[in-house]
Structure formats: C-alpha cells, structure tokens
Design a protein that fits this description.
With 75 residues, the protein is mainly alpha-helical. The chain has one domain. It contains five helices and no strands. The radius of gyration is 14 Å and the shape is globular.
C-alpha cells in the first residue's frame, strides 16, 4: 500500500534514513509514521533542534554529493 501522501515507498525510506543519519537521536517510530512527508519530518526534527523549519527542510533535501564532485569542489 502506498503512503497516504502519494510519495513512493523508496523515496519515503530515503527521507527517513537521511533524517536519522543527520539527527541520530530522533525517535525512529515518529519519523517512520511520517511516511515520507517532509513537513511531518521537519516537525519531528524541529522538536530536537533550534534550527528553523526552513533550514531543516533544506538540509533534509540537500542533494548528495558524489565522491568525484567532492574532490572537484574541495580539492
């Protein structure tokens, strides 16, 4: 069954994993209940940090950098 907000399961799992990697002390159950809804994940994270919601959202959805891009950008 697809998540209620229309996000495919792989994207939802990716968002959950990313949130848990960036903020490791989050309650995994609460993050999983969000079912990939970024607004819900931002609310859960905002209870654990002083960052504004906009900053959390941007960090959460920041594109990942490949190893090759990292060498190009940072030497």
């Amino acid at each position: 069954m697809p998540p209620p907000n229309g996000i495919d399961r792989s994207r939802a799992a990716w968002l959950e994993q990313r949130a848990m990697a960036l903020w490791p002390r989050l309650d995994r159950r609460k993050v999983r209940r969000c079912a990939g809804d970024t607004r819900c994940i931002v609310r859960v994270v905002s209870r654990r940090t002083t960052l504004p919601a906009d900053a959390i959202w941007r960090i959460l959805l920041l594109p990942s950098v490949s190893e090759d891009e990292g060498r190009t950008w940072f030497g």
